[in-house]
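Hello K.,

You asked for the raw outputs rather than the summary table, so here they are, unedited. I folded two proteins back to back in the same session to keep the settings identical. This is the first:
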Amino acid sequence: MSVVVKKKIKPGKVEPDDSELALIVFYDKEVTYDDDRVDRTRHSTRVRLKALDISSDIPSMAASIVNNCKYLTASRQKYVEQALVKLQRRNLQQAQLSDEREKYDQGGMGEAPGGMDGEASVDKLDEYLEMMYETGPDMTEKVRGTAMILQLCFNVGNLEVIVGNQAIMSLLGRLFKDEFRKSMEMCYNIMRIYLSLSNFLEMHPVLASHNIGRLSLIIMDYENTRIQHQLKEMKRLDSEAAQGSDADISANSRQRAKAKLVFDRSQKIVYACSYLLINLAEDIAVERKMLKKKLIALLGSHMNSATSSNLLVMLIAFMKKLSTFEENTKQIAELELLPTFVNLVSCDDDNVALMVLRLIYNLSFDPKLKYEMVKCSILPKLVRTLQAPKFRGITLKILYHLSMDDRVKSMIGYTEATPLIMQLVLKFPGQMLAKELGALAVNISFNMRVAEMMCHFPKTNRGLYELVERVRRTHDPILMKVIRNISEWTYSLQEEMTDPKNYPHRGMWGRFIDKILEVMIEGKGDRDLLVEVLGCLCNLTPLDLHRGKKWSRCMEEYDLLSFLSRLLVPHMADRDVVLMVVIYVGALSLDETTVPIIASSSSKLIYYLQGITNDYSQDPEVLLQLLFTFKRLLCYKDTREEILYGSNIVDGILASSRSKHTEIRNEADACLSIIHEHDRELNGPQGELAQQVCKLRYSMYNREWLDEIQRSEQGAFTGSMYE
């Protein structure tokens, strides 16, 4: 009997379900037996979706599906996104075809167009054609004929028949082009017919052959003019009504109602035009043609006057699609549309607010637009949206982009954003912080004022305590980076003070040092965590510890030197870890009690530092920090003697004095000055190392003169060869 040796799952294609709101994931299961026989079987599973509409975030939804479906891998995410787009389009098509009539006709278009009260039939296409051919000033028959064809379009099965009737398509195109100004109802009906066709990519060539995209732009521009006129008319009537008699008010009220009806009908036509154009813009070449017709300016103008939330969502969605290209974002900036977008963030309609936040996120990739957003007072609005779970994800992304600017970091410190972000960080349910939340917390903590607020949230030192406790539980390197930035704040305070007695946070880190060291020891396998912990420790001085707690005690309790030495193994150490260890050793040397431990032969730390000097002689950053650490260690007798007489570190310092980098030469020269001063017997002659320093300085000071002598001697020698 064969025994199963191995089972393997291979992800397959991902397709939208035909009957429900779900994706079908195909996968192959391979079973290998001990006799090398392999059985392959095809399987599928259905992933049902709770909702999918025009405001859905496709990339985030796809990532969530991949994470939660065991038959999908990260490499399949793009296929999941493609399937979701298809499903979204189909879902919107069905919603439009089934609910569109009620949605629009009851929402401001007035009474239903003539003919919609009857039942349309494909067998009566010729009758509808005759209605549309009707001449005369009365457009009733044309409205009725187009309405009946629109009713047929509600059934997807009729679309192919309608498109196949060249007489109807040609007549619709002519009416759309020549008579759209004569009847808003007829124009709206024809637009909805074309909208039904535009939901299918296969129909786009048919629409292109009748120039429907260009005509839709013309109609949008025409309706924009009509909308502006109606707005002025309603404003005038309101002004007159405020000053007129009761009879005037009654007359004005009727005129205003009529103007409002025209205004609402125009908005519905604009909605249908926008919907059709966004469908046609699936083809990038078509989209570029639209942009040449000043599409962005047209969309912006309609956004300024729109009162319908459905229309606003559609216009913003279109603008969001366009904003993925840099040249379009530049045009948006030139047209000064950003204030309009920022104002819509405070919209009462959640769908509008969510869509405009996604648009702003796209625009926030542009450095100039980012600062323009801040000038438009977007920060207080984002603080409010951050409180709503529905908007939180996209708001965090926008704030992260804005916080890359140092000016914005400081502004955030004067808003309610910092307490909110701290609450989200400390109460985050997952093991590791979400990327957007963690990155935002890191960015703002670079600002000294914000770092202080985070440390003392909600009361003195409580925020830092909660952060350290969470890192201790989770070993999250991003959160450790926040703590490191807070340590930068306390370190900068000490640098600015002339008298250490004035340091207001003396001993603040003492209660946390044991926990931080435990995180470092336990998380030694996580390179990112190790770098951040070491970076935090590098910023702590003896003033940050309790009066009774010294670095030497920590070194003995946690065997720090052995731990640090293992991180400096030549040819195996990580470069960033090495850099942090070197800086940390320099920080430890600020405490005199650590010097004998560092100098002890059992620690081998100086031996490993010598190896690092050789390995990183061509790395300016590491070499500079090594020299800085050596300078500190040379100030103490125990470590100085170990460096001078127990290692070859001096050779590396001598070589560094010839570096092309000014900072490295200066640090090397400072080290050599200490060596020159101390390498001698008491009241006796200079030692060998001090003499080497003198020779080096002499040769460097007189380099030009010595080079000239050498060239002269070589010239004289060469001349004698030919005499």
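The second followed immediately with the same parameters:
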Amino acid sequence: MADEDYKRRRDIMTMNLAIHGPIEVPFEVPNGRGVKHIDKDQKKAFLASLDDAGLASKQGCYIFAIRASRGYRPWYVGKATRSLRQECMQPGKLNHYNAALSKILKGTPVMFFVAPDGRKNKVSESVCEEMETFLIQSAYFMNPDIRNIQKKKVPEWKIRGVLRSGRGKPTVVEQAFRTMLGL
């Protein structure tokens, strides 16, 4: 009985979010050489692809990253408390994206989104805030050159094999601990 009550409370308290993407961000290379750049035309094309993916009116968080041969490198994390369409391609954000593109020679810019799945669009502001902080800290751990200025302070502790522990295969005990906590 207590187990059923816990599951019911957990389902009520939990906001179910899903990862969407990666969606490629169009860019241009002026004169066919030089630094990659996202301008108004590429912004418009990207927002159209956001509409096509059914994400434009959703709230949530987004991560601008560069995909290269070794995976993805996060460069900017943001939150959208109005809608992803209204917030992820604002002029200030484009400045961050273009600054990141100027630092790399190879790779394709992409965006990941964490937003409600299905027909739901809304995410509470407190959930967005908490999620953005977590994502910035996680992205900063992977890329200390991340463009975000605030919320980068990563807690000064880690649990080897469980949380912020870097590379390496967790031991049997560490894996059991992760499983126990659902990490």
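The first helix runs from residue 2 to 13.

Happy to rerun anything if the numbers look odd on your end.

Regards,
P.
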